[in-house]
TrEMBL record:
CDD domains per UniProt: ABC_Carb_Monos_I, ABC_Carb_Monos_II
GO molecular function: ATP binding
Protein name (record): Ribose import ATP-binding protein RbsA 2
Domain ABC transporter, chain residue ranges per copy: 10-247, 255-502
Gene3D superfamilies from the UniProt entry: P-loop containing nucleotide triphosphate hydrolases
Sorted UniProt keywords: ATP-binding, Cell membrane, Membrane, Nucleotide-binding, Repeat, Sugar transport, Translocase, Transport
InterPro entries hit by this protein: AAA+_ATPase, ABC_carbohydrate_import_ATPase, ABC_transporter-like_ATP-bd, ABC_transporter-like_CS, P-loop_NTPase
Highest taxon in the source lineage: Bacteria
Amino acid sequence: MAIATSSPLVQLKHVSKSFGPVQVLKDVSLDMHRGEVLCLAGENGAGKSTLIKIMTGAISRDGGEYLIDGQNIGSPTPAQARELGVGVVYQELSLLPEVSVEENLLMGHLPTFKGIVNRKELRARAIRMLERVGLNRVDPAAYVSDLPLATRQMVEIAKVLGANARIVIFDEPTTSLSDEDAQHLLRLIQRIKTEEGVAILYVTHRLEEIFEIGDRITVLRDGQFITSGSTSQFTHDTLISSMVGRQIEALYPHRERKQFGKTLLSVQGLRLQGSPYPISFDVHAGEIVGLGGLVGAGRTETVCAIFGADPIDAGKVYVDGALLRPGSPAQAVNAGLGLLTEDRKVLGILADLSLRENVTIANLGAVSKLGVISSKKEHSLFQQLVPRLRLRYHSSEQTISSLSGGNQQKILFSRWLATRVKVLLLDEPTKGVDVGAKADIYQIIGDLVSQGLGVVVVSSYLPELLGICDRVIVLHDLGVTGEITAEEATEEAVLHLASSAPTSTNA
Ligand SMILES: Nc1ncnc2c1ncn2[C@@H]1O[C@H](COP(=O)(O)OP(=O)(O)OP(=O)(O)O)[C@@H](O)[C@H]1O
Ligand SMILES: [Mg+2]
């Protein structure tokens, strides 16, 4: 329950911001109260992260006011914002991986005496900070790089709270977490809200989370304030339509009773490096096969191994009857295989290249002649693809890194639409993608399979996996624990298999 008091802790009034000629925030206002979770909702590119960066001092606004405790605070620098109690937990965490947990926690204010770090005091303070977020069992001396992602995020929160934050901002914190870790995080947020009276701003594309922890919701669309109200005033449907400005009939496309065609992908006895369990399955033309399981089950490793990007201990992969050479993604692409990776920062994005180049890179054959790329052809290919994705962009020549997260994902997705793939491997295809764009992407996947492609989808988001797949293969410990057809698939069934032991022979 919220213990909001009448005077807001934070007020943004009529905030505006442009990047060059593009206005991304227009007259946006919001209030945050002590002991309350405000969810900021909006499609990809709506301006949520930009507003957050204005609050943390990472960027400056063009107009409007920013008040904390009723005081006008001007345009704070990041240090001033921190001083005023504004803390932020970003998706790309700010901890230094090769440094211990305790030093990370107290970075910038290590307890020293005559220039020498007081190790005992450091340890004691770090333990207190960790206990505050329930991390009683984490070794303060451990390197951050040795901790699982979810724990790192908790350490980050400990650091923000330890710096006396009264206002804590979360920008899509659960995107990379398992269901269990996400639940744990939501419980922690509830606790710091009620027990410590912190004001929380929470951004997520998972609507279930908004209804679970939001006391109030403020909706942005196209950089503009749309509506604000207590969560109980919204339903899923009204929230979606105020976010996207249109009705979404069906999130998951209805496909006619499908006729599966020939086998397009055959994975035979594939053993991931260090795994005793062979993985075997086929994907047919017109079929969508899901890979389910918990974080660390080996889903990403499996698609990377099929693509030839990860080493394997044994096994064969055939694409449309042709045997792939292990360890050769280039040959896999030639044979008709495409991979959309989960981590766009590491494997996917060519950050400094334009949108146009990022789209056409996988299909240089279509836009080049004798090795010379025709930017005119590239341009027309880009123009063909973009309308299907409802992309929010300014120019095909802007760098991809200037797009919002979800729009970057759409660009990477369209890269494969530009090629002549037979089988697409999609690892978390809608990670960080808003609900309207999710519907678009599911529709595109549906269209692709009805044109005779085979698709493999890895997703941690169970409603999505069950919503689009014909069959779900569940992995655990780098092996297969079972297979469920769309008809018999329920969240419980997948979760049950996700914690069972793999079989050494999977049929
Ligand atoms: N540095 C920049 N230069 C140019 N345009 C930018 C820059 N940063 C953001 N934008 C643009 O501002 C708009 C708002 O982006 P923002 O990242 O705030 O969206 P968002 O609501 O957080 O979206 P998402 O849900 O995808 O994270 C987008 O159109 C984006 O392309
Ligand atoms: Mg964002």
